[in-house]
Design brief:
CATH architecture of the largest domain: Roll
Number of domains: 2
Strand content: 35-45%
Shape: rod-shaped
CATH topology of the largest domain: SH3 type barrels
Helix content: 25-40%
Order of helices and strands: EEHHEEEEE
Largest sheet: 5 strands, antiparallel
């Protein structure tokens, strides 16, 4: 049983007996609770039994709080893993040509060459130069010199 840093408050009743009024320890587990429950049942006055329903309700609430905390931690870890995976996937697109589904003034789908990746407020963005043309003689693309920030979720095609 976790007994480090336990704070026990008690008071003296009108009959002169000492009663525990509260026990405080952030490290108490469900097993500790059950041990305390059994000990309290052993020590109770048979003429005035304790309310076992209230104790079971408290134990159920404690279990629900513990389960919610565990689920919250798991969701945070899952979210972090997803963000890391998304960033790694985006980094593999550097030097690739992508499309985001937008159409330019001539009716052609806009294409970009990815130069870098950044993450901002949990969102992943590709920093890319728009492809403005293709030189048949040198077989090279020409690019807009300014970067366009494209959300990773907007990518429709990767070349």
């Amino acid at each position: 049983m976790a007994v480090d840093d336990v704070l026990v408050n008690s008071s003296v009743g009108v009959d002169g007996n000492s009663y525990t009024t509260s026990i405080s320890n952030d490290k108490l587990t469900n097993d500790d609770f059950l041990k305390l429950l059994l000990e309290e049942m052993k020590m109770q006055d048979p003429t005035e039994p304790m309310d076992s329903n209230a104790l079971m309700d408290s134990q159920l609430q404690m279990s629900q709080i513990e389960a919610n905390n565990d689920m919250s931690k798991a969701m945070q870890e899952l979210s972090l893993a997803y963000k890391s995976s998304n960033l790694a996937t985006s980094a593999s697109m550097i030097n690739h040509v992508i499309e985001d589904g937008q159409i330019d003034d001539t009716g052609a789908t806009k294409s970009y060459k990815v130069a870098s990746v950044k993450q901002e407020d949990g969102e992943v963005y590709l920093m890319a130069n728009k492809i403005t043309g293709y030189d048949e003689e040198t077989k090279t693309y020409t690019y807009d010199q300014e970067f366009t920030q494209i959300p990773m979720l907007n990518i429709t095609k990767i070349f």
